[in-house]
Design a protein that fits this description.
By secondary structure, this protein is an alpha/beta fold. Helix content is 38%, strand content 29%. It is built from six helices and nine strands. A seven-stranded mixed sheet has the order 3-2-1-4-5-9-8, with helices on both faces. The protein has a two-stranded antiparallel ribbon with strand order 6-7.
Length: 217
């Protein structure tokens, strides 16, 4: 799919397939919580150090709500959003007092701004031209001085396509954009963000992630 010609119809198809895929993967995501807890806590510590207790946080693609649970226990007020009904069901069960929304980040009207946005393994689910719109919306949703944590797997080449998610037993396809480090850094800076930190993290499944911490001036 050409990144410069993704139409509204293409995006509807991408969202439809991704919703179905992550519904099918929800049980496996839930089963992986214990394995991913430590690396998730570590990633969140790199984000939370820029925030103080009581701050308002948005998590995009919150999945089964592991990160929300950790952030809430650290004293942050978290809103989560995910497009998968089954993921949201797990997230609400884990975090019954949290505001967790079933919806599409691109079209949802949040109605307020946030001190921080935690966005892990989310930006790569969209073609680049749509991802740039997502970054712009994140920028607009942040208060002045707000912090964005943006994580995706590291790639040596930039490309995007439909792919099967091979690292799960329930092998379903979804759209995937592979970002190079320089490409994503440039996209963040061009959106208006100020770079604070970059962390290269290997998870328990041997996947290597590049996690940017940036700030809205």
């Amino acid at each position: 799919m050409n990144k410069s010609t993704t139409s509204d119809n293409n995006l509807v198809e991408i969202q439809k397939v991704n919703r179905a895929t992550y519904d099918n993967l929800a049980n496996e995501y839930e089963q992986r919580n214990k394995t991913l807890k430590n690396v998730t806590e570590y990633a969140l510590s790199l984000f939370i150090k820029h925030l103080s207790s009581g701050k308002e946080i948005l998590e995009t693609g919150c999945a089964v709500g592991l990160a929300i649970n950790i952030m809430e226990r650290k004293g942050l007020n978290v809103t989560g959003i995910d497009i998968s009904p089954k993921m949201v069901k797990y997230a609400k069960k884990r975090n019954p007092k949290s505001d967790i929304v079933l919806g599409d980040f691109l079209t949802y009207k949040f109605g307020k701004k946030y001190d921080g946005i935690f966005s892990f393994a989310f930006i790569h689910l969209f073609p680049k031209n749509i991802a740039l719109k997502i970054l712009k919306k994140m920028y607009e949703l942040l208060k002045s001085g707000g912090v964005l944590y943006l994580g995706t797997s590291r790639s040596k080449q930039s490309y995007e396509s439909w792919e099967v998610k091979k690292d799960y037993q329930n092998k379903k396809r979804r759209f995937r954009k592979h970002w190079t480090q320089k490409e994503l850094e440039n996209a963040l800076i061009e959106t208006g963000f100020k770079k604070l930190d970059l962390y290269i993290i290997e998870d328990p499944f041997k996947k290597v992630w590049m996690d940017f911490v940036v700030q809205k001036p």
